[in-house]
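Might you be able to consider the sequence and fold that I enclose below?
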Amino acid sequence: MKHKWGRPLLFMAVLSLVALLPTDSTGDASQPSQNSPAAPLTLKALTLKAFTLKACYELALAQSETLKSSAQNILQAETRYNQALSTILPNLKFNVSSLIQDVDTHNNPANARRETTLSKFTASQPLFRGFKEFAAMKGSKFETEKSKQLYKRASLLLYQDVAQTYFLIVRLEIDLKDVESFIQLTQERIAELKQRINLGKSRESELLSADSQLSSLLSNRESDLSAIAIARNLLSFLTGKEIGDTPLQSDLDSPTSLLSLDDAVKKALERSDLMAVKEEMDAQRYAIRIAQSDHWPAADVIGNYYTTRDGSLEPIKWDLLFNINLPLFSGGLVNANVKEARSIYEQARLDVERLTRQIKSDVKSVHLTLESSLRQSDFLHDAYLKAKKSYEIQVKEYRLGLVNNLEVLSALNTMEQTKQQWDGIQVGTKLNEINLRITVEDIP
């Protein structure tokens, strides 16, 4: 029997998540009734001693090296502001030097060397640098805010990674429970066929068909168990805590309210990554001013106060030096720097326009996807209930000799496939809701 509901895709999804990523609470899940085919899995029993999505996210926030590295970018941007501030403040230092010289011993045999000592305080104060320092200070503030916005966005993307892995496990475990339920139904079918064969009412070929279906289901169960182990290991990596077999608590109910498309777009245009590129554009605007400041003259003053001074200058205790540099020609270097800064600013402005359009497109796509999955969930729920009813009728009619065993197995397969599709769209809807929240930055 071939299953069309995409089990290989689920397994590949687990492997893809492992490849793409760098770098607490237990209760018993309710068991389906032996006579009820593929009863939907409810997670109400997982309210105690189970990991919630929020708890996993908090663990991931504390563990993520990527996030910690992003926090260092904020610190570096703040230090660049202090560096720019230091260029407009006075500089004070104390210097001591001692000069020892050889002398002509023929003319002065009593004194074989000469020693001169100089100690002084030196203070320097920039007076004018074309307002370069103030532009650098302003630009560094925008860089700091940019780093903060990128940190916020990285936190949200981490939430997305955790949620995708979390609900992949939920999806696989629901799928495993469904497979086990269908295994039980198939085993019951095989037991009934054996009785009918003994009575001469069924053929051996019917039993072989049922046995073949059972083997296929057993293979699917092993595939699910392997995929669950891999996904749980990935969640352990993200959280930095061994998840093991601890149940995951999750609510798969449909969202009670849904933002309108216009409201979602409006909210998304305040997203942190868009704010970050706007801050980068403002920082590059001040980079132009920094480059232009080299056209201006530079002036500073240097003062010395001497505490020790030998020789003829010993009576002079202090001096001041006023220095003015007027740029006349530098081979076109300043103009080239200004053009480069303007080009970088233009790139930043285009990045803002591109990301603004991209966000609008993303919001519309995610919003449409969520609306579609909500409608699909309703249709598939209805389809599953009808497929289940059809299977129950087929079993009764088979016992009356109105249908053959292939028709019963076909009804069972249809019910199985429909149940898998319904479960998949339920988890998919939850992920689509989370994707929309992350797109507009409105996570709970």
Confidence is low (pLDDT under 50) at residues 1-12, 14-48. The beta strands are 51-52, 91-102, 113-128, 248-249, 298-309, 318-325. The chain has nine helices and six strands.
